[in-house]
Amino acid sequence: MKFQRTVITMALAIYPAMSFSVFPRFGINNILTKALTGGSSSRIVPSVTRSTTQMNMILRNLFGGGAFEQKIDYTTLDFPGNELGESAQAGTVLVNSVKKPNLALATFAGGCFWGLELAYQRVPGVEYTAVGYAQGKEEFPTYDQVCSGMTGHTEAVMVYYDPQQCTYETLLDTFFDRVNPTTVNGQGNDFGKQYRTGVYFHTPEQEAIAKARFEKEQSKYSRPIASELKEATPFWPAEKYHQQYLEKGGRFGMPQNASKGATETIRCYG
Predict the structure, then answer these.
(1) More confident residue, 106 or 24
(2) Under 8 Å CB-to-CB from 19, ≥6 apart: which residues?
(3) Range of weakest confidence among 15-29, 87-101, 165-179, 189-203
(4) Catalytic annotation present for 112
(5) Cβ contact 243:78 at 8 Å
(6) Does residue 204 have a cis bond before it (omega within 30 degrees)?
(7) Structural element, H or E, at residue 149
(8) Distance (Å) of CA 199 to CA 81, 82, 174
(9) Are 187 and 139 in contact (CB under 8 A)?
(10) H helices within 122-203, ranges in order?
(11) Number of Cβ within a 10 Å radius of residue 217
(12) Given strand 104-109, what is the order of strands in its sheet?
C-alpha cells in the first residue's frame, strides 16, 4: 500500500511522536510504509492501563482500519498461547501454569522473538514456549500495531519450565548468550523500541536472581547495560504463524532443530 506525501505529512503533524524504525525481517521500512510509522498461579497487575488504544484510533482515522483493527483470536492458539491470552485479558501475570501448575513461567525479550524462542526451545527442562508482546499498555496488540512502535510493547518469549529440571539461572544463561545487553532499543539487524531487550520477573525470587546476574554481567562491559530488568506485566500472545516459527521452517521453509541440547547456529529469520 502506498501513501501520498501529503498524507504522510498530515500524519506526522497529527502524531509527531510516532516511532520510525527499520524492520529488515520484511524489508527496509516495510512496516513504516504500512503504519506510518506469591504461591498462586497468577497475580493481578492493577497498574497496567487497560484501554482500547489511542493508537488504534489514530491509525483507524488515517487508514480506515484494516490490519490495525484485527484482533487475535487467542482461543485458536495451541497451549500455552490460549492460556496466556486468557490471562492477559484478565489483566493478570501467571506465576505458574494454570493447566500444568508444576511449570513456572519466565519472560525474556531479546530482539526478534523468533530466534530467542528457538534458543529456549532447546534448553532441557523448558517444556513450552510462546512468543508475544510484553511490557506495553495497550490491549490486544497485533504484530502490525507493535511494529508501529506506538503500543509500547517489545517482542518477547514466554518460557514454561520445570524448576526441578531447569533453574532460572540457566534461563538467564541463555538470555545473555543470545543478546548484547548494552545495545539500546535493538539487537542484531533489528532496531526500534519493539526490539528492546529485557528480563521481566514474575516473582521476588526471580527478581533477586536476575538483579545479581545483571550486576555480574555489567562487570564485563564498559558501557552500561541497556536491557530492562522489570516486573512482568500481562503478556499478549502473538499471532499463530509466529509461534515456533523457525522450528516450522521460517520464511524459507527450512525447519531448524528445536531438540534439547541442539547446538546448530540459529538462522534468525529462517
Answers:
(1) 106
(2) 37, 148, 149, 150, 192, 193, 194
(3) 15-29
(4) yes
(5) yes
(6) no
(7) none
(8) 20, 23, 12
(9) no
(10) 143-147, 168-178
(11) 16
(12) 228-231, 198-201, 104-109, 154-161, 126-134, 236-237
The confidence band for 87, taking pLDDT boundaries of 50, 70 and 90, is: very high
Cell (9 digits) for 138: 495497550
Maximum alpha-carbon separation in the chain: 59
Q: Which pLDDT tens digit goes with each residue over 43-70?
A: 665 544 445 445 555 555 554 455 556 8
pLDDT at 224 over 50: yes
| Strand partners for 53 | none
Is residue 126 within 8 Å of 185, Cβ to Cβ?
no
CB 86 within 8 A of CB 248: no
pLDDT at 118: 98
Cell of 36: 506510518
Among 107, 93, 88, smallest CA distance to 50 is for 88
- The pLDDT, as a whole number, for residue 189 is 92
Query: CB burial class (10 A; 0-12, 13-18, 19+) of residue 54?
Result: exposed
Average pLDDT over the chain, rounded to whole?
A: 84
Paired strand residues for 138:
51
Is 94 exposed, middle or buried (CB count within 10 Å of its CB: 0-12, 13-18, 19+)? buried
The whole-angstrom separation of Cα 106 and Cα 206 is 8
Q: Which amino acid, one-letter code, is at 191?
A: F
pLDDT: which is higher, 227 or 1: 227
C-beta of residue 20 within 8 angstroms of C-beta of residue 37: yes
Axis crossing angle, helix 204-218 with helix 168-178, rounded to the nearest 10: 40
Query: Which residue in 152, 153, 157, 99 sits closest to 126, CA to CA?
Result: 157
**Which residue from 71, 83, 233, 94 is spatially nearest to 140, judged by alpha carbons?**
71
